[in-house]
Amino acid sequence: MKKQKGAAVIVSFFLAVALLAAGCSFPARGEEEPEPQASLRLVDEEGYTQVEVLAVLEGEPLHDPAGVAVTAGGEILVSDGARHQIYRYSPEGELIDQLGSQGGEPGRFNQPGALSLDGKGNIYVADVGNNRVQVLDAGGRFLRQVGSRDEFASFFSLQDGFDIPLAGLAADREGNIYLALKGAYYDISENELRKYSPDGELVMQLASMLEGSYDLVPFTWPGALTVDGEGTIYLVHGANGVGKVIKIPLEQNAPIADQTLQFGSLGKGKGELLHTPLGVAVDQEGNIYVSDTHNNRVQVYDSRGEWLLMFRLAGTPYGELTEPGNLAVDGEGNLYVVDRGNARVLKIANPVRHGSVG
Questions:
Q1: What is the model's pTM?
Q2: Helix/strand/coil percent split, the chain, to 5
Q3: Is 204 helix (H, G, I), strand (E, B) or coil?
């Protein structure tokens, strides 16, 4: 028996040497297997990546979700355009607070839309029906407002009541505010991208007309925007068959023209967009998430605009995405999708890291 045991040890030793020589190695005891790289991700026959849904926010009181933001602690804020309120949920999707009510006074809303947060946790609300941005502290108390109907008057048509200039909102860590303003007519009206300082001073203004002049790149009917930790702006826009993503780095409140990137082609294939995408978010790795609203899916691109993946919910217990809108990403890369057509918000495990086919 001793000879057999010694022989087994010798065989094991030479087997280990052979494996090491072949470029193989044994994981250390207790060491976790590395996560698969995105390049090894499997997809279904149509090219869609399956994702994991972590939470679903739906049912009363949520009626018409419009904007979404996530606090540093993982709480989820959702604006409701029909109920004129903002709801606060736990990371698991439990309703824990309601902010505001319908009205035009400070701290009250009329069709609130996009939401954003700064580094202090202050809440920025696109108060669409009141033509302003409201800034609240982390507890929901009113601090100040930016914009007014008079300030945005040039974006209204003669058909008063049919215009919604406030198409996109983002705030950076310092409290600078970024707005996408949409003209009344996609082909002849002016659209603008603006930046305001934390005290409300207008410090940057980029204008564009689909059939006319533009300051940097042409864009029309912006659908949403976001900003990353470096102050780079990401804008999605389109109408009349156009769907594009624009990445605009800034330096001293001015765009860096030769670093501006525009991508997205018209269609239903991989990386292609239909008109007017209505959501965009960027994670800490620079991956760009876009709500391909009228294709009922979300697409993901890397920081260079190269297509990475796309997903929907077909074949899952959650039905299907229907006209997804605003997006948010938390510090772990989990994605939050306003599923507008289904009146819900989905929390999805980091699609780039965890996406696979079951």
A1: 0.85
A2: 10, 40, 50
A3: strand
